[in-house]
């Protein structure tokens, strides 16, 4: 195995700050010697000391060290933030209680899969981009990763909000469009939704049912 991918919300804790849980994850990675991509919030602070969150994807090396992080750029309105809250919609609160304010990331970070232990470094290491949840519906965002050198794409999502409806299938269908537009293979890891692989021509190579462990 060259890469493990966990879905968004698979680790419901602050990876950087909760050392006991972080230790369990890094021990798992070291035991198997395989890099891992996982979703976790990142806690940061404004200059005035008020906290905020980033919806992030962390990429761990086989030794457990963090190789990189991507911060979600397109946040879900009324879920992760309230648009125009300081002016027009000051009286509203988010639909998701108990979750702090999120800020958007600013960079389409491209990550590189490290060479396996004992192997010679690849002249052209596999590079990939990550889009989180509904970011995959934005063609211009995915194009940024492809233009930045991503040879394949990963999308991680928590589709539990959708329940047993048409929405998980619609969400998965958007990945097919992004694959064809950018001529990139997609790997998708979904919490309760459809996980699978789509090739650059839009062929669905593998897909799981919803609400089923695999």
Q: What is this structure, in a nutshell?
A:
By secondary structure, the chain is an alpha/beta fold. About 20% of the residues lie in helices and about 25% in strands. A hairpin with a 4-residue loop joins strand 8 (about 185-190) and strand 9.
Notes on the structure:
The protein is of the alpha/beta class and 214 residues long. It has 3 helices and 10 strands, in the order βαβββββαβαβββ. The chain has helices spanning 19-32, 139-147, 167-182; strands at 4-5, 36-45, 51-60, 66-71, 110-112, 127-132, 152-158, 185-191, 196-198, 204-207. The strands form 2 sheets. It has a 6-stranded mixed β-sheet with strand order 5-6-7-8-9-10, with helices on one face. A 4-stranded mixed β-sheet has the order 1-2-3-4, with no helix packed on it. A hairpin with a 5-residue loop joins β3 and β4 (66-71). The longest helix is centred in the last third of the chain and has 16 residues, at 167-182.
């Amino acid at each position: 195995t060259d890469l493990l991918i966990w879905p968004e919300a698979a680790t419901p804790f602050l990876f950087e700050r909760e050392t006991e849980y972080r230790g369990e994850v890094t021990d798992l990675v070291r035991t198997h010697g395989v890099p891992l991509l996982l979703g976790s919030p990142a806690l940061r602070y404004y200059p005035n000391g008020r906290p905020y969150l980033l919806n992030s994807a962390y990429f761990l090396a086989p030794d457990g060290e963090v190789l990189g992080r991507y911060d979600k750029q397109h946040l879900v309105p009324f879920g992760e933030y309230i648009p125009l809250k300081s002016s027009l919609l000051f009286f509203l609160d988010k639909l998701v209680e108990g979750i702090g304010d999120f800020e958007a990331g600013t960079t389409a970070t491209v990550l590189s899969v490290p060479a396996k232990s004992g192997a010679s470094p690849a002249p052209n290491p596999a590079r990939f981009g990550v889009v989180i949840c509904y970011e995959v519906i934005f063609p211009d965002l995915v194009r940024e990763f492809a233009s930045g050198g991503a040879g394949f794409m990963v999308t991680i999502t928590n589709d539990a909000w959708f329940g047993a409806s048409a929405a998980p299938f619609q969400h998965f269908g958007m990945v097919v469009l992004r694959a064809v537009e950018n001529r990139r293979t997609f790997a998708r890891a979904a919490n309760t939704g459809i996980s699978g692989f789509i090739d650059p021509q839009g062929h669905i190579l593998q897909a799981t049912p919803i609400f089923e462990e695999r």
